[in-house]
Each structure stands twice: as C-alpha cells, then as structure tokens.
Amino acid sequence: MAETIPTELRAWYFSGFFEDEMERAAQDLINFLVSKYGNPIGCGTTRMVFESKNNVIKVPINDAGISSNDWEGSCSHEIYAKTKGIWLDNGLVIVVQEKLDLDFKFEKNNIIKDDSSFKYPDWVNGIDCQQVGFDKNGNLKAYDYG
Questions:
Q1: Among 7, 101, 132, 141, which is least packed, fewest CB within 10 Å?
Q2: Is residue 30 a contact partner of residue 5, using CB atoms and an 8 Å limit?
Q3: Measured between alpha carbons, how far is 24 from 54 in angstroms, rounded to an integer?
Q4: Residue pLDDT, tens place only, 102-134
Q5: What distances in angstroms separate CA 3 from CA 24, 28, 31, 62, one per listed residue?
Q6: Rounded Cα–Cα distance for residues 113 and 103 (Å)
Q7: Do residues 3 and 9 make contact, with C-beta atoms less than 8 angstroms apart?
Q8: Cα separation of 145 and 40, whole Å?
C-alpha cells in the first residue's frame, strides 16, 4: 500500500485491484477526497464513502467496487436514492448519490417517535441489509444497491 494513504485510513483500505495503475488511481482519488472532505464516513468491503454538503461519494477500493459503482451508477428507480455514475478515463467508476436521512426522524414529513412502530414496505426486504433512508421530501429510498 502506498504511503500516500493517511495512516488513519490504512485500516479501512483493502487493496484488491488487478492492475497497479488502478491501485494508484484509487489512492490518488482517495487522497484528493480526504483533502477536500476529510476522512471518509464509512468503508465497506468494496467501497469507501465520503460526505459532501448534499451528497455522498462512493469510491471503489478494489475491482469489485468498480463493478458495484458501475451497477449502482447505471440504476434509476423511484425506490433508489438519486445517483450519478461517473466513469473516469483511468477506468475507475465513482458514484455521487443524494444524502439520505438514516436516523428515521421523519416519514412523509411526519415525526416518527419510535422507529420500531414504522412499517417498512415489502420492497425493503429485497435491499441488502435493508439499507434505506429518507430523502429530503420524506420518501423512503435504498442507498446501497450496487
């Protein structure tokens, strides 16, 4: 792993690109995003996530992350968070997605005092780990479907 990845991020960073150029491109992109937005807000097995004012930015950390972003960046449906896939010249694919409220504080602009009483629609069961949140209009949407 290149020394350019900040020390605090190394535990989150899983090398796994087949091509060294892709590895370097991902490291450069991550370094840029850290300088612009600070440390990522999360990291899964294939992608690292940064937060801007209105969006999250999903960056692949291995080849599987490129595939996830390629799929997620190509999807459009009313149950999915608004997403834009960006295919970079270096082969990386990043996803810029609207931020959702994951605290379940509102649903159709009504306050939910106890989220255990909230009845999720059936489609939520088809989303990996039921990763859903509310958009700014109070609509329930999936945010991780790549």
A1: 7
A2: yes
A3: 28
A4: 876 545 555 454 556 667 888 888 888 888 988
A5: 11, 11, 11, 17
A6: 11
A7: no
A8: 19
pLDDT in tens, 25-84: 998 999 999 999 999 998 888 999 999 999 999 999 999 999 999 999 998 899 999 999
According to the model, what pLDDT value does residue 126 have? 86
Spatial distance between the Cα atoms of 75 and 78, rounded to a whole number of angstroms? 10
Distance separating alpha carbons of residues 72 and 49, to the nearest angstrom = 14
Structure tokens at 37: 């937005």
Query: Is residue 40 within 8 Å of residue 52, measured between CB atoms?
Result: no
Q: What is the pLDDT of residue 18?
A: 81
Q: How far apart, in Å, are the Cα atoms of 81 and each of 22, 34, 50, 111, 117?
A: 27, 24, 16, 21, 23
Q: Backbone phi, then psi, for 26, in 5-degree steps?
A: -65, -40
3-class state of residue 30 by DSSP:
helix
CA-based R_g, the chain, Å: 16
Distance CA 132, CA 81 (A): 9
